[in-house]
What we know:
Blueprint lengths: L1 E5 L5 H8 L6 E6 L3 H11 L3 E3 L1 H6 L5 E4 L3 H13 L3 E4 L7 H14 L3 E3 L7 H11 L6 E9 L19 H18 L2 E9 L4 E3 L9 E3 L5 E8 L4 E7 L11 E5 L2 E5 L9 E5 L6 E3 L12 H12 L7 H20 L3 E2 L13
Parallel strand pairs: 1-2, 1-4, 2-3, 4-5, 5-6, 7-12
Antiparallel strand pairs: 7-13, 8-11, 8-17, 9-10, 11-12, 13-14, 14-15, 15-16
Helix pairs in contact: 4-5, 5-9, 7-9
Amino acid sequence: MKIGLIGCGTISRIYLENLTKSPDVKVEACADLDVKRARERADEFGIGKAYTVEELLDDSEIDIVVNLTVPQAHADICLRALRAGKHVYVEKPLTVSREEGLEVLREARERGLRVAGAPETFLGGGLQTCRALIDEGAIGTPVAASGFMLSGGHESWHPDPGFYYAKGGGPLFDMGPYYLTALVSLLGPLRRVTGSAVITHAERTITSEPKRGQKIAVETPTHLAAVLDFAQGAVATLVTSFDTGAGTSLPNLEIQGSAGTLLVPDPNHFGGEVKLKRAGEENWTSVPLRYGFTDNNRGIGVIDLAQAIEEDRPHRASGELAYHVLEAMHGIHDASAEGRHYTMRSTCKRPEAMPL
């Protein structure tokens, strides 16, 4: 199937590196608001066409649009691609708002097209090995999970960090999709969520170049502690923060079961070490990864989408999964603001496991 990529920023390089090597898809064209940047990417990866966004959407040969634009443009580009008769794969989050996300899914459904969305790291060898262990009963019945993404924020290293502190940003919307998608792929859909969210510092000072010394007014919570109730009964805690600059000894992600505990690798990556400790054992055991895709394999969600269309089967990084995660993140914010639990309105199927 032929791919058209829109948004030739930093993340596009790893997508193109992987997609141009795949025998299942052909990258036909790339586009950007800055056509010069699109041409640079096209030349770098031997892609024949560098387009404006409009030209790419008008190209009838393109089957799938890979949308790597900034989050505020996700909905617009997805809807335009669908209306042009193309399937869509979009970087996280699916859209900025729940209303936009529902509109994208509705448009695809009405047109008989597919929507897929990042993150796709749950398809990697690390998380797939964890899924296999859970499904085999290695930890018994999953009872609880704990996830931690604690950092000091992006103003010390990112060249233009303002977005991370604007509405639609923050640690939950930035990194939460990796953790929530991993948890849903391991434990199934959510039933309800709650949490507390605060803005610790009303203003941040950029210390990176080229905007060193500029001030950022913080518009979104920068420290959030969430409680997640899963439909199958497990209860998880998730803490995300841009306010903890000294590091942490807490795990990225841990699943506790009735018969053991699973130490899950960083859900922002495809590989990593998996550790298992069964009830009654004193020590952790390192579990060899059973699956491939353990490097930076961004693009495998696109390839799985293309294969699924050809094989007439569900694709794994589904739009419904991406929307479920988007709703959960908004629900955590709503719950904190209103002092209540938020009951999920959406659900999704647990994605099929990857083949060995």
